[in-house]
Amino acid sequence: MKKLVRITTVPISLEKLLENQLSFMSDYFEVIAVSSDIERLYKFGVENKVKTKHIELTRQITPIKDLIALWKMYWFLKKEKPSIVHSHTPKAGIIGMLGAKLAGVPIRLHTVAGLPLMETQGNKRRLLEFVEKLTYWSASHVFPNSKGLYDFILQNKFTTKEKLSVIGNGSSNGINVNHFSPDSVPEEEKLKIKEELQIGHDDFVFVFVGRLVGDKGINELVDAYSQILELGYSNSKLLLVGDFEQELDPLKTKTIKRIKENKHILSVGFKSDVRPYFAISDCLVFPSYREGFPNVVMQAGAMGLPAIVSDINGCNEIIVQDINGRIVPAKNVELLKREMLYLLGNKSVMMVMKSNSRGRIVGDFNQNVIWKELLAYYNNEIKSKV
């Protein structure tokens, strides 16, 4: 069997961003997963029946640690001699692609699933742009996971058009539409969670799923919802599913205080299975500043939820205005509040969007289609280069 090395900075990306994809590929390749956090990586390997290699990668700018990681990556790939190295996430991209090029790996693929540099300026922006260009130069091909990212990469001249393509209609992994289904959560489980969270039968529940950080739009979301409550909409709840990451992109002190003190804002932390929380909600609100192709928006849609999303790449490719949700400019509290109020007050519109949501995901972002198209690309490259 040909060897396929898949690299992410942290194992949670293997678990969530690429959920079950490496297991699928292991039927066709000898798959080796490379990431940091040795214990979590080992657990992933056991559960998914793939080999693993621990190389410590950081999510921050750490030149000395990065050089050590590059050296280890180079020697690992030199020894293993894989046919394909495929990286995800920025740090794994530069270390993986540069290490693979130096080691003479013939097929070097990098998937772009969001660019942190979109929200940076000055010298840091210039540094991140240089790293991105070096990553793409080292890769033999680059997969932006949305059409918006594809256009952004070309506009900023990070690489040439010949080196870019989007798999399917976008997304790194697609959605398992059987797993994410309205029928996947029993009624008794929904009732139990509602009771635990003190959600009333007639409450309208807005839900956000993801990291509780600034660039996910949490400050704006909490501000907009607080204003909605001040207008008297006490028969509503804001459900936040995800962990705080104060060390990387902290929320405002005022936002944290509101989350902790407002009984209508329900913060339940990270959940390995988010389906029950979609199942008890009415509408996803996802006001992120930047994305690649957000799994959360696809997951919510597959669960039958309409969504209010930012007008950014990925989000505006999944949501079609007035069909399966509403699109609002990022970082705009007033317009976000207006859209939330619009859906709160228009049940008939909500029902139409709800009825359209799942069909949109099933038709355009089915996981099996994404996996098979990527596998076909792998096989074609092997035939031509190996």
- In what order do the strands lie side by side in the largest sheet? 3-2-1-4-5-6
Largest sheet, strands/sense/barrel: 6 strands, parallel
Distance between the termini: 13 Å
- Please trace the helix and strand order, writing H or E for each element: EHHEHEHEHEHEHHEHEHEHEHEHEHHH
Q: Which stretches of 5+ consecutive residues score pLDDT under 50?
A: none
* Quantity of strands, as a count: 12
Number of helices: 16
Instruction: Write down the CATH topology of the largest domain.
Output: Rossmann fold
Shape: globular
Amount of helix = 40-55%
Strand pairing plus helix content: what structural class?
alpha/beta
Describe the structure.
With 386 residues, the chain is an alpha/beta fold. It has two domains: 3-174 and 367-385, Glycogen Phosphorylase B (Rossmann fold, 3-Layer(aba) Sandwich), CATH 3.40.50.2000; 182-364, Rossmann fold (3-Layer(aba) Sandwich), CATH 3.40.50.2000. Helix content is 46%, strand content 15%. It has 16 helices and twelve strands. It has helices spanning 11-17, 21-25, 38-48, 63-80, 90-102, 122-138, 147-155, 187-197, 218-230, 253-261, 275-279, 295-302, 315-318, 333-344, 347-364, 367-385; strands at residues 3-7, 30-35, 51-54, 84-88, 107-112, 141-144, 204-209, 236-241, 265-267, 283-286, 307-310, 325-328. The strands form two sheets. The chain has a six-stranded parallel beta sheet with strand order 3-2-1-4-5-6, with helices on both faces. A six-stranded parallel beta sheet has the order 9-8-7-10-11-12, with helices on both faces. Strand 2 (30-35), helix 3 (38-48) and strand 3 (51-54) form a beta-alpha-beta unit. The radius of gyration is 21 Å and the shape is globular. The mean pLDDT is 95.
